[in-house]
């Protein structure tokens, strides 16, 4: 440790017992005994928007607008206007400019709480396709639907990583690998914003579990995710950075704390990382009621306080100006900002220039995504009725177009075939009698939208629960789709379905007569504000719901040809039944959205050759994962320390030589692929690599920029990272031959092994490509390694560096099934 760092540490340690987080005095939040090293430093002032990269004209236009606004008008845009708006959240209006305020709407898989809109496959499913185009197409279609409903911004994509297998909201995001999640985030952002809707990448950051996440009352326990600088950059911030590089115009700060400080007032996170390091040009919005202070949040870099009131459920009923029990943000008593922010400006606590910057960023985001001030929502999330209190609120605009086709395609492309002894694809001419078992095959008796925000596990599982949901316009369940398909192709077939998970006698009876059986099982999770079957968002365990293991057993005991279909939010344990010879195939179908049954039929009967790949590892036992949910804590701030650092998911299994049941990247096909002829071409670009994105131009004293003296890229700041991040350092080509008899997609994966001195995991994903190859044909696959891909975050120089030594390139069908190996020197 250098003298300077030692000095800083000593100062911090000396301060912690007395200090409370306070931006004004520059004292960081303290840590409880035993966690002293986990303190988030203060980074002020907030860097104003600069109009870098493609943002110049949007920022100029926003500046022009903001220069015409009064302080009151500006404050209207910074502060949410409560919960009684058309959209789940939104700001005040600018009547003088005919602007009705920002409409901010969930969710990451469709337009939440409305009618005539689609229910797309969850984020975890589009990640399981490993298909960049499908990721983009899904974002584009969701953008179109939000646009059609008059929404300015989607609260999505959500890109927190699957650090803990039971994490309640993992399914909203893109799995357990930052590179895969980064690509999915970028593609989703591009798709959404190409349809003139702002994408808000959430929840920044360290929000990997639901227990103690925050967002409730003033006295609740809120956890601190203790994350070291390198892990933060290489894992948890990475997907956000990729989103920003793709142009994401908004970032949401999360409920939790990182290194003791509440995220929405964590100046290191907002000012330091998002605005300085990532040169973010859009605006930072708080998660709903994630704000815990007024002046501190403003100075720390928050730009929009949503939904404007202090806390959920703590205000008096205020005559409909907000939700019945939330304080009206118009009233000084009920908002951290609003008129309190005006006071803070007037008394000098917050410079007005900071408020100008907040509003400039908000409008720059609007203009950057091709919007103007005229858009207004044509629905109301509070009701599907046409009128609310006598006012027309819902025009029932149908935005579904033919998105059902894309949903069906993604659903099928995301199915991971885990096991197949030869029964798949099912030859419909061959079987005379089907048995279909389990509630997961059929409808929810209360209707597809019977449980608010999908807060129950009834019927087939096609999305988790919470704010990350949308209403189903219809739900093609598997039982319906299979019956219809078989009936249409072979009408003289018997099909008997037992949808009661606990009626083992009936399952036994049907199974004993059937020549093909399908057992449907699931595992559900969601957001903390709803508890389902004692699961408070996070799952209590990794077993199947409704004793799914017993449903499988009831089938396999009598039916030697049982196909298991799993709809799950994340990993479950398969050990009880996976090796049972009567389990002849297993399809891992995730959360496929409204077309779930059709997607399944496509794979089951062979219209689609499966190509989905696991976006996380399926372990043999829960304890094999490196980290778990913190369920119980009596600390005021429960401490969740990311001790495993870079070693999550497959990185951990590789490093510890733990044999998983099915590894990250795994998935079978109806055909076979062979790999050959690996070549690596270095582009001869200089290794000069101590690049970062700090921009000294906005501070007068350049010594404040930590690396100003030697950083050659200093003036190349660009949203999401320096331009040089995208330098192609290596091109990798190889051949893939479809050696089977069916056309199909292969998902080729590139993993990189760093020089030992870099202390990276044994291998990390750095590229992938889903390629269509006809039977008996060969394709040449080309991949690139960019400067960022071969860099690591250096905590001393606070920049990305390329370590010296030998790099190994692994080309494989999964993280463990490596087919080709090469190397290069740096
Ligand atoms: C969730 C966010 C969501 C917001 C608005 C919060 O509770 O964490 O993901 O966008 O509510 O509904």
From TrEMBL:
Residues 1-21 form the signal peptide. Transmembrane segments: none annotated. It catalyses: Hydrolysis of terminal, non-reducing beta-D-glucosyl residues with release of beta-D-glucose. Residues 746-815 form the Fibronectin type III-like domain. It comes from the Eukaryota. Keywords: Carbohydrate metabolism, Cellulose degradation, Glycoprotein, Glycosidase, Hydrolase, Polysaccharide degradation, Signal. Belongs to the glycosyl hydrolase 3 family. This is beta-glucosidase.
């Amino acid at each position: 440790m250098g003298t300077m760092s030692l000095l800083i540490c000593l100062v911090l340690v000396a301060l912690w017992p007395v200090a409370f987080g306070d931006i004004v005095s520059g004292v960081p939040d303290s840590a409880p005994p035993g966690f002293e090293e986990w303190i988030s430093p203060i980074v002020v002032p907030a860097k104003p928007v600069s109009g870098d990269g493609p943002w110049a004209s949007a920022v100029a236009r926003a500046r022009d607008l903001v220069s015409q606004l009064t302080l009151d008008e500006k404050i209207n845009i910074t502060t949410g206007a409560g919960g009684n708006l058309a959209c789940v959240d939104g700001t005040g209006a600018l009547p003088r400019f005919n602007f009705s305020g920002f409409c901010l709407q969930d969710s990451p898989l469709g337009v939440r709480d409305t009618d005539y809109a689609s229910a797309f496959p969850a984020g975890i499913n589009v990640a399981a396709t490993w298909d960049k185009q499908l990721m983009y197409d899904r974002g584009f279609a969701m953008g179109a639907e939000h646009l059609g409903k008059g929404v300015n911004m989607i609260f999505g994509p959500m890109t927190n990583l699957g650090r803990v297998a039971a994490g309640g909201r993992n399914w909203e995001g893109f799995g357990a690998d930052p590179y895969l999640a980064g690509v999915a985030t970028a593609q989703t952002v591009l798709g959404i914003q190409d349809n003139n809707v702002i994408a808000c990448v959430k929840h920044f950051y360290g929000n990997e579990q639901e227990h103690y996440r925050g967002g409730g009352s003033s006295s609740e326990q809120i956890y601190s995710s203790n994350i070291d600088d390198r892990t933060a950059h290489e894992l948890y911030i990475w997907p956000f950075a990729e989103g920003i590089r793709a142009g994401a115009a908004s970032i949401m700060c999360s409920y939790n704390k990182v290194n003791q400080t509440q995220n929405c007032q964590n100046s290191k996170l907002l000012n330091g990382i998002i605005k300085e390091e990532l040169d973010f040009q859009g605006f930072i919005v708080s998660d709903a009621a994630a704000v815990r202070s007024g002046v501190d949040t403003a100075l720390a870099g928050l730009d929009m306080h949503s939904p404007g009131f202090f806390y959920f459920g703590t205000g008096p009923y205020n005559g409909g100006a907000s939700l019945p029990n939330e304080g009206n943000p118009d009233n000084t008593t009920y908002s951290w900002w609003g008129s309190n922010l005006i006071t803070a400006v007037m008394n000098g606590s917050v410079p007005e220039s900071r408020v100008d910057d907040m509003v400039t960023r908000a409008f720059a985001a609007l203009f950057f995504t091709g919007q103007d001030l005229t858009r207004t929502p044509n629905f109301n999330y509070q009701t599907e009725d046409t009128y609310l209190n006598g006012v027309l609120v819902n025009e029932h605009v149908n935005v579904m177009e033919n998105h059902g086709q894309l949903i069906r395609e993604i659903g099928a492309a995301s199915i991971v075939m885990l096991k197949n002894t030869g029964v798949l694809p099912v030859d419909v001419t061959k079987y005379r009698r089907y048995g279909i078992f389990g509630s997961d095959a059929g409808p929810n008796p209360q209707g597809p939208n019977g449980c608010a925000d999908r807060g129950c596990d009834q019927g087939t599982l096609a999305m988790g629960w919470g704010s990350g949901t949308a209403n189903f316009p219809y739900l093609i369940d598997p039982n319906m789709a299979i019956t219809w398909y078989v009936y249409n192709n072979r009408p003289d077939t018997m099909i008997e379905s037992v949808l009661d998970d606990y009626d083992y006698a009936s399952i036994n009876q049907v199974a004993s007569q059937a020549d093909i059986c399908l057992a449907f099982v699931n595992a559900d999770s969601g957001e903390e504000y709803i508890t389902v079957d004692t699961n408070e968002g996070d799952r209590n365990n990794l077993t199947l719901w409704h004793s799914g293991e017993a449903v499988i057993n009831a089938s396999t005991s009598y039916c030697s040809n049982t196909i298991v279909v799993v709809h799950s939010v994340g990993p479950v344990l398969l050990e009880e039944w996976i090796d049972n010879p009567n389990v002849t195939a297993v399809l891992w179908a995730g959360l496929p959205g409204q077309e779930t049954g059709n997607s399944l039929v496509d794979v089951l009967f062979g219209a689609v050759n499966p190509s989905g790949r696991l976006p996380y590892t399926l372990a043999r036992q829960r304890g094999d994962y490196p980290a778990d949910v913190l369920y119980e804590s009596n600390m005021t701030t429960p401490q969740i320390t990311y001790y495993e650092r870079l070693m999550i998911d497959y990185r951990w299994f590789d490093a510890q030589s733990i044999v998983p049941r099915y590894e990250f990247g795994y998935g079978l096909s109806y055909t076979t692929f062979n790999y050959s002829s690996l070549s690596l071409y270095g582009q001869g670009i200089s290794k000069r690599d101590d690049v970062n994105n700090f921009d000294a131009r906005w501070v007068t004293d350049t010594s404040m920029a930590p690396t100003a003296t030697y950083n050659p890229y200093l003036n190349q700041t660009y949203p999401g990272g320096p331009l040089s991040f995208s330098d192609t350092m290596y091109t990798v080509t190889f051949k893939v031959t479809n050696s089977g008899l069916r056309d199909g997609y292969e998902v080729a994966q590139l993993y990189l092994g760093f020089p030992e001195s870099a202390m990276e995991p044994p291998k990390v994903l750095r590229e992938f490509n889903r390629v269509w190859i006809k039977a008996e044909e060969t394709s040449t696959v080309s991949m690139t390694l960019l400067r960022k891909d071969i860099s690591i975050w250096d905590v001393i120089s606070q920049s990305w560096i390329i370590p010296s030594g030998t790099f190994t390139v692994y080309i494989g069908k999964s993280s463990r099934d490596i087919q080709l190996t090469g190397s290069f020197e740096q």
